[in-house]
Amino acid sequence: MGQKERSAAKISASVACTIVFVLILSASAFICFKKRKPSKKQPGLAFHNAARGKCMIFDLPTLQEATENFSEENKLGEGGFGTVYKGTLPDEQEVAVKRLSQTSREGLNQLHNEVQVLAQLQHIKLVRLLGYCSHQNEVMLVYEFVKNGCLHNFLFDERKGRKLNWNLRYNIIVGIAKGILYLHEDSSIRIIHRDLKSNNILLDENMNPKIADFGLARLLGGGHTQTKTANVAGTYGYMAPEYAIFGNVSPKIDIFSFGVLILEIVTRRKNNSSDDYNNTVNLLSDVYNCWTKDMTLQIVDKSLNVYSKSEVLRCIHIGLLCIQEDPDDRPNISSVVLMLTRDRVKLQPPRQPAFFFARDSSSVFEHARHGNYIYDKSDVIVEDNFSVNEVTNTDPYPR
Ligand SMILES: *[C@@H]1O[C@H](CO)[C@@H](O)[C@H](O)[C@H]1NC(C)=O
Ligand SMILES: *[C@@H]1O[C@H](CO)[C@@H](O)[C@H](O)[C@H]1NC(C)=O
Ligand SMILES: *[C@@H]1O[C@H](CO)[C@@H](O)[C@H](O)[C@H]1NC(C)=O
Ligand SMILES: *[C@@H]1O[C@H](CO)[C@@H](O)[C@H](O)[C@H]1NC(C)=O
Ligand SMILES: *[C@@H]1O[C@H](CO)[C@@H](O)[C@H](O)[C@H]1NC(C)=O
Ligand SMILES: *[C@@H]1O[C@H](CO)[C@@H](O)[C@H](O)[C@H]1NC(C)=O
């Protein structure tokens, strides 16, 4: 081969190489483009965006299609803030679409920012907000779908309720407490739920609890930082007295509702009547009456036949601490989590709950017990023999 021929071969080889390279490049670009184009339309991306704390904006047709025009069959429930529908997005992802009932014009302007903030609150014990849709005066929030529905339906269904053994219930109680801990203390902004109740606790496929509707009172109630509100958003029966009567908002109103939740979960007691308020008042009084008479276990759900006595008693005790009348007496959520999860934590005796009426007042005062309580893992319940005054100097919640 001559010089000329060699360089010609070199040139043609490099040209061929270049052509092949360009071909590969354009082919891959084409493939990428093809792949990307449809996925841009697919709300499947919604999930990934949401996972990064971004909030998707859905259009109305997508949600109409997903929920089959908000059909009755897809209706999951009706809450204080609107109606919830099950939806399936084009990529098969299941979602829950909440159609808000009351939104004012001014509300809409703020909504975008507020929803962004809520979408950033991500915790395994919170129902994840994926995005929203606003159309004319209507607003819809799109949430992850949680499989087993709400705790209320589970607990008060005769058949399902029996399946909730003590370990599941304890796990639910601790899970809710951890969710509240995140809302109150660990998230970027402090969120006071204001409407904690068994309808707002959803259960996933492993029966782990997830708190729903957090931030909605803030979103729709107007005032953000104010500590008094004219719009009381809670549900009778779960509302702390200072909130129900004066509209005072503080984290302690969630603690109160959590206390009611604990007592509900342990006793599984709910009268079949529309009068939630009186039923709860009765429940709180009854549990406290039993506690002062040292007959606490009598009020525990009869379908719980195997359980750790000390764990159950400890939960009831913590429930009673949470529903005390004076908000300052109620423990904060980090104390609650400690009390629930640590062994040998000293619990102070609860004062009488809000809305209390004694069935038999003489017995209450006669049997009211003093000193601290320790519920040991081995089912041993130790009663401290300190006087109440001495105890105030010791830290009842070791760190
Ligand atoms: C939903 O309703 C609109 C009109 O309200 C109708 O045009 C559309 O076909 C309906 N879609 C389905 C899936 O039913
Ligand atoms: C229902 O309420 C009535 C009256 O308050 C009470 O006597 C009864 O024990 C309650 N039933 C249950 C199952 O709690
Ligand atoms: C509850 O009460 C309603 C009427 O108030 C009745 O229709 C329903 O059957 C009752 N449910 C149970 C489980 O007793
Ligand atoms: C609820 O309690 C109030 C106050 O005690 C009473 O007036 C009302 O009749 C009760 N309602 C029911 C349904 O028991
Ligand atoms: C919660 O209460 C405990 C005990 O009273 C206290 O030591 C702790 O500082 C409180 N935590 C917060 C965040 O207020
Ligand atoms: C307190 O201690 C006394 C003896 O010091 C004992 O007799 C009594 O039972 C104790 N009380 C409790 C509640 O443990």
TrEMBL record:
<keyword id="KW-0418">Kinase</keyword>
<dbReference type="GO" id="GO:0004674">
    <property type="term" value="F:protein serine/threonine kinase activity"/>
</dbReference>
<dbReference type="InterPro" id="IPR011009">
    <property type="entry name" value="Kinase-like_dom_sf"/>
</dbReference>
<dbReference type="Pfam" id="PF07714">
    <property type="entry name" value="PK_Tyr_Ser-Thr"/>
</dbReference>
<keyword id="KW-0597">Phosphoprotein</keyword>
<keyword id="KW-0547">Nucleotide-binding</keyword>
<keyword id="KW-0325">Glycoprotein</keyword>
<keyword id="KW-0067">ATP-binding</keyword>
<dbReference type="InterPro" id="IPR001245">
    <property type="entry name" value="Ser-Thr/Tyr_kinase_cat_dom"/>
</dbReference>
<keyword id="KW-0675">Receptor</keyword>
<keyword id="KW-0472">Membrane</keyword>
<feature type="binding site">
    <location>
        <position position="98"/>
    </location>
    <ligand>
        <name>ATP</name>
    </ligand>
</feature>
<dbReference type="InterPro" id="IPR008271">
    <property type="entry name" value="Ser/Thr_kinase_AS"/>
</dbReference>
<dbReference type="InterPro" id="IPR000719">
    <property type="entry name" value="Prot_kinase_dom"/>
</dbReference>
<keyword id="KW-0732">Signal</keyword>
<keyword id="KW-0812">Transmembrane</keyword>
<keyword id="KW-0723">Serine/threonine-protein kinase</keyword>
<keyword id="KW-1133">Transmembrane helix</keyword>
<protein>
    <recommendedName>
        <fullName>Protein kinase domain-containing protein</fullName>
    </recommendedName>
</protein>
<feature type="transmembrane region" description="Helical">
    <location>
        <begin position="12"/>
        <end position="33"/>
    </location>
</feature>
<keyword id="KW-0808">Transferase</keyword>
<dbReference type="InterPro" id="IPR017441">
    <property type="entry name" value="Protein_kinase_ATP_BS"/>
</dbReference>
<keyword id="KW-0677">Repeat</keyword>
<feature type="domain" description="Protein kinase">
    <location>
        <begin position="70"/>
        <end position="355"/>
    </location>
</feature>
<comment type="similarity">
    <text>Belongs to the protein kinase superfamily.</text>
</comment>
<dbReference type="GO" id="GO:0005886">
    <property type="term" value="C:plasma membrane"/>
</dbReference>
<dbReference type="GO" id="GO:0005524">
    <property type="term" value="F:ATP binding"/>
</dbReference>
